[in-house]
UniProtKB/TrEMBL annotation:
Residues 7-64 form the HTH lysR-type domain. It comes from Tistrella mobilis. This is LysR family transcriptional regulator. SUPFAM superfamilies: Periplasmic binding protein-like II (SSF53850), Winged helix' DNA-binding domain (SSF46785). Pfam families: HTH_1 (PF00126), LysR_substrate (PF03466). One of its GO terms (molecular function) is DNA-binding transcription factor activity. Keywords: DNA-binding, Transcription, Transcription regulation. Coiled coil: none annotated. Belongs to the LysR transcriptional regulatory family. PROSITE patterns: HTH_LYSR. The keyword Metal-binding does not apply.
Length: 294
């Protein structure tokens, strides 16, 4: 079995800088080195990987096919390297952070983010409160939360930092529920609820009669009612259980505007809450970049 070949992170950084700067001299300026050193480092990297990485012309420097592949990997390696170094250079932080979030978001996208944060910051305690958005607003205003993830209308005045956006969809146990005669039965959370209001406003605008058939403050209760065929509900597209059906326009239901999630931050938060704020924004942004609707 062949011994593993290790690449020097410094050489990878030089290659990425040359690619971004478009030449050796500008890369040398950015890295505070002379041009001959940059050339030598590129040659060492090419020898290490056994491939020509740059095409050198009198007026240009371009990546070869192999060079482009290695640059793509190098960016990911450097990002992890820099993240690691930022982490180990920072002093250990400790304390309690009080975070509020809607139940649907807290049980889908948030657990993985908080688990990774807890692993990186074991001395920080997390106190997570799940509630309706308007109740979270009240608790945040009362000073009971350091950070709060809240649902908001995309067209609303700027409130907090937007960290998530995705489509809302109608959901039922089967398509026929939406095509029955009479008012559309809805299974929703109690008022005030952003999704409930979104559903009723859309139906009113479309002239479609509706009635509240089932009300439950817990997401699991709403899912159970929908599974039993008691009504139709509204959920973010990524949060639809596999055993439920998303209803399309052919069922006669009106379209729904996207939902947004914003992060509210209390004034004068301490280092633990500030670190969690930065972590949540970065991780949710990364999640959108990996294919989640945002």
């Amino acid at each position: 079995m062949a011994a593993p070949v290790n690449l020097d992170v410094d050489l990878l950084r030089t290659l990425v800088t040359v690619a971004d700067a478009g030449g050796f001299s500008r890369a040398a300026d950015r890295l505070l080195r002379n041009q001959s050193t940059i050339s030598l480092q590129i040659k060492r990297l090419e020898d290490r990987v056994g491939a020509v990485l740059l095409e050198r012309g009198p007026r240009h420097v371009r990546l070869t096919g192999e060079g482009q592949v290695i640059v793509d990997y190098a960016r990911r390696i450097l990002a992890l390297n820099d993240e690691l170094m930022d982490r180990v250079r920072q002093p250990e932080i400790a304390g309690l952070v009080r975070l509020g979030a809607p139940e649907d978001f807290a049980t889908s996208h948030l657990p993985g983010v908080l688990a990774r944060f807890a692993q990186e910051h074991p001395a920080v305690g997390l106190e997570v409160t799940c509630d309706l958005t308007l109740n979270l607003f009240d608790r945040f205003a009362a000073g009971d939360l350091d950070l709060a993830l809240v649902k908001r209308e995309p067209s609303a005045p700027l409130l907090g930092t937007r960290v998530w956006r995705e489509p809302l969809v109608w959901v039922a146990a089967e398509r026929g529920v939406a095509m029955r005669q009479g008012p559309l039965p809805l299974a929703v959370s109690p008022a005030p609820c952003v999704y409930r209001k979104r559903a009723t406003d859309a139906l009113d605008a479309a002239g479609r009669p509706w009635r509240i058939a089932y009300t439950c403050g817990a997401l699991t209760g709403t899912h159970a009612a929908v599974r039993a065929g008691l009504g139709v509900t509204v959920l973010p597209k990524d949060m639809v259980p596999a055993d439920l059906v998303m209803l399309d326009e052919e069922t006669g239901l009106p379209g729904l505007a996207d939902t947004e999630m914003a992060l509210l931050v209390a004034a004068d938060i301490g280092p633990p809450a500030q670190r969690l704020r930065e972590y949540v924004i970065r991780e949710l942004e990364r999640g959108r970049g990996e294919g989640t609707t945002g």
